Amino acid sequence: MPEIDQQKLRDLMEIYKKHLEKELGVKVEQHVSAPTTREYQQFKAEFLPKHMGIYEKLCNLSERLLKIKPGQKDNAEMQEAIDITHLSITPSGAISFSILIPIIGGLLSSLFAFLIFQSTFFVSLFLIGSVLAIKPLSKAPQFIANNWRLKASNQMVLCIFYTVTYMRHTSNLEKAIEFASQHLSPPLSLDLKKIMWDVETAKYSSVKESLDAYLNTWKKWNLEFIEAFHLIESSLYEGDEARRLNALDKSLDVILDETYEKMLHYAHNLQNPITMLHMLGIILPILGLVILPLVVSFMENVKWYHLAAIYNVILTVVVYYLGKNILSRRPTGYGDTDISEENPELQKYRNIILKVGKKEVRVSPFFISVLTGVALFLIGLSPIIMHAAGIPDFGFGEKDLTTVCQRKYCFLEYRTSATSGAEIGPYGLGASIASLFIPLSIGLAIGLYYRLKSKNVIKIRDKAKQLELEFANALYQLGNRLGDNLPVEIAVGKVSDVMEGTISGNFFQLVSLNIRRLGMSVERAIFDPVHGALVSFPSNLIESSMKVLTQAIKKGPLIAAQALTNVARYIKEIHKVNERLKDLMADIISSMKSQIKFLTPVIAGVVIGITSMITSILGRLSQQLQQVTSSVGGEASGAAGANILGLFGDGIPTYYFQLVVGIYVVQITFILTVIANGVENGSDKLNERFQLGNNLVRSTILYVLISGAVMLLFNIIAGRILTQTIGA
User: Which residue positions in the chain have pLDDT lower than 70?
Assistant: First the structure.
């Protein structure tokens, strides 16, 4: 509000105050000072993750050290993204950060690489990477805003549902927005609180003006959300009750129909990006690994850590970036929230709960996962540790005097390089099998952590979701009982008797028991923080429906009956659209899940087996050529033998090659799981963690089993072929 208007308002209120003091004969206290509430600021501080605060500090620091102003067009886009995400930075700070941090990071990392590796490859890699990072970092506010929009858009259908549900029995926009903000989770709840905050701080003169300004930020991405809210606003001006209710019903229909239509187009357009992601992230890299052992054998300057930089860093970043671009185009949909973040009482279920007598012992999943990971990692490092400790090599199989351990298959098998004369390895089959424990340690540790952290919570949420599926029918029955002019205390008991044995029946039975045995009111029987029915059934949808009941019952059973009937209808409609949306995504999601759970670990496991066989054959042939060359003797024959040995090269030990592939399998499983969950469920962090736990454990174990089996099989075959060839 302009300063002149505020002054006029204060003058007008001063006049009215004097008139009231004259009429009443008492001193009237004036409360027109600026609002002192900190609700929005506290809520923002609690919700925004810590890394957002770090990003804000780095941007503000960069602006002070190196102030660079963006172009006019970029400035407007960045300011819009900053406003959406509630960041306390400027476009100049974001641009300065995107240039200063890569320069410092590139110089320090390239210097570190030169000192450690003495390699121009890594120096060039870090310098080029830092230059390439400038462009994505300059788009960081837009990237954060896209993630924000993805999370917020998942809650828009519920936002309209909560607003319409409240407005049906109380035509008050301000109270309806407040009601919706209480039942939604961040970030949309933060946006709704910001609407109220802007009115309280006199930035806008009314809730409608503040709401319209907020809706303008969605004009490019979500017109149906704006249209639905405009219909809600129009209901405030309808004189006829039937037309007012019709406008509210129409607003929910609009966002449901438009959501389905936009998701339909998204599903149709998703096939090509997913195919490209599959080819670039899985098929081409893993098929390329089949050729790499041969390439590396003839290029002695290529080391295993060069492959690790390409596969485990560059390729992983590219696949992740492509996946995030696919998710950024996802329209308004549906999405669940992590109920343990909203309900502090449920946070204990993030731990492993052991019952010792009457006490509960909580064990952190982090402790279990770290212990498991470290133990498996040490087993994987055992060949390196044994060689460093000077433990002599040993082997198994038939006796073979041509090998270091004088057995057909050695555990360590360190060789002398044919070109440099240095000791290299381990090439042994035992070491290759032991190396499988390193990706197993990473995949199993991360997978166990996510699985154990989310398993108990997701069981509670699934139970609540099952209740939500039945709840619409239960609300219909409760509405019918209230329509018969029964008191709500009796109506609840009747519904619990009729639906005995169901989850809904258990919910209403708990409410009825609280009323009859503990003498609670209906409101306390439902919402009491200790004994309330919602403690056992945490669900925002059920909580909001019960709040509608407790508020509508004050106006009489018939009004409450009508309100519950409409809520039940809304729940049915939302569930129907959600099921149709899931059906649209079924083919794409099933394809991605098959890649995660089966194709990727199986293909990678076979590739490792082939690589192990090729490396074994080339290494054994190199050793045989060395023996032949030395036995023939002569200067000319020695030079010819050296040329042939140089042609074969040393190759990369399967031990290190498997590390690159195994870690890539863990990485690609992680990325594809995040993308698949995002496409199917939107920003559902709880389900994402649960799926990560399941997929990482299963895929890593499958990869390790197949790699180990194929390595053993192919090495036995290679050993027999070489024995026959050498014998002949």
Answer: 1-52, 290, 292-301, 331-345, 400-404, 418-421, 622-650, 722-728
Per-residue pLDDT at 625:
63
Where is 362: in which H helix or E strand? strand 359-363
Residue type, 601: P
Structure pTM?
A: 0.75
pLDDT recorded at residue 47: 54
Q: Which two tokens stand for residue 614?
A: 């090729």
pLDDT of residue 637: 47
Residues 6+ apart with CB under 8 A from 275: none
Is the Cα torsion angle 531, 533, 537, 542 positive or negative in sign? negative
What confidence score (pLDDT) does residue 667 get?
93
Under 8 Å CB-to-CB from 537, ≥6 apart: which residues? 463, 464, 467, 503, 507
- Cβ atoms of 167 and 235 within 8 Å: the answer is yes
Cβ neighbours of 404 (radius 10 Å) = 20
Contact 346, 460 (CB under 8 A): yes
Distances (CA, A) of 304 to 280, 300, 307, 483, 513: 21, 11, 5, 75, 68
- The rounded distance, in Å, linking the Cα atoms of 169 and 397 is 82
Q: Are 383 and 655 in contact (CB under 8 A)?
A: yes
pLDDT, position 3: 41
Closest CA to 193 of 38, 88, 31: 38
What is the distance between the alpha carbons of residues 692 and 681, in angstroms, rounded to a whole number? 14
Position 664, amino acid: Y
In one letter, which amino acid is 77? E
SS (H, E, C) 425-469: CCCCHHHHHHHCHHHHHHHHHHHHHHHHHHHHHHHHHHHHHHHHH
